[in-house]
């Protein structure tokens, strides 16, 4: 299905699930904003790859937890890529594995502002552009949640899991709020995907440790998550909103 002429912002797409989604979106015809926080080189490499494959992309640095940076990000996309059609709220973080009684307020605040406030702020900017209420032509939002929202991540990062629980609820509520304004809002809930995020928790090989407890006996790949995200963004999912799709190998 072609998304020619459409524009998508994908937060946190310099690597991992975001980068795989950026490449697939560009292949399907989207002009892509590759957002990142620190790694300009990695973001530039994603853009270069997309251009080599005949697609259109730009990379833009913005911390999604900072309101001013989010506003600037979307204003730059307006100028450089044109009218927004889609948002993938993907930038998410986790911290070193620990129990709840060890967590301090600084950690909790960083997790919640990036994983929750960031998603709200980016969705706000997307709605102001895409909603028919604001003379937009409609669009689609996909929130990258996590199976952690229902599994809980005990002994690892209950704060992260709770932030994803908030995103599930956010998806359901926002989907209803903008359903009559031409915008569909859905979420994917991956788990055990081979990316660098597990190193942030202090266990780069976490998926290998866990994989025998996954019914499919393997971890997942970023491209498998990207496929679901692009389906939700596409017209093939035209009657789907408020849905939470699990990509967790049966777990
Ligand atoms: P990852 O490999 O760690 O990549 C994270 C990306 O987010 C990077 O591009 C990073 O940019 C960017 N980022 C971090 N903080 C940001 C901020 N404040 N503003 C803007 N960008 C920011 O992560 P991933 O595994 O692909 O995960 C992507 C999403 O999937 C997250 O929401 C995660 O919770 C979710 N998820 C992942 C798994 C899994 O097993 N991997 C499972 C369930 C859900 P820089 O590189 O520039 O810092």
Give a structural overview:
The chain is an alpha/beta fold and 251 residues long. The protein has a single domain (7-247), classed as NAD(P)-binding Rossmann-like Domain (Rossmann fold, 3-Layer(aba) Sandwich), CATH 3.40.50. 44% of the residues lie in helices and 15% in strands. It contains nine helices and seven strands; from the N terminus they run βαβαβαβαβααβαααβ. It has a seven-stranded parallel sheet with strand order 3-2-1-4-5-6-7, sandwiched between helices. Helix 3 packs parallel to helix 4 and helix 4 (105-130) packs parallel to helix 6 (158-178). The structure holds NADP nicotinamide-adenine-dinucleotide phosphate. Residues 11-18, 35-39, 42, 63-65, 90-93, 114, 144, 146, 190-193, 195-197 line the site of NADP nicotinamide-adenine-dinucleotide phosphate (NAP).
Fold blueprint:
Blueprint: E1 7-10, H1 16-27, E2 31-36, H2 40-52, E3 56-61, H3 67-80, E4 86-89, H4 105-130, E5 139-144, H5 148-151, H6 158-178, E6 183-190, H7 197-200, H8 206-210, H9 222-233, E7 244-247
Parallel strand pairs: 1-2, 1-4, 2-3, 4-5, 5-6, 6-7
The protein binds NADP nicotinamide-adenine-dinucleotide phosphate.
List keywords for this structure.
7-stranded parallel sheet; 9 helices; binds NADP nicotinamide-adenine-dinucleotide phosphate; alpha/beta; 251 residues; Rossmann fold; 15% strand; 44% helix; single chain
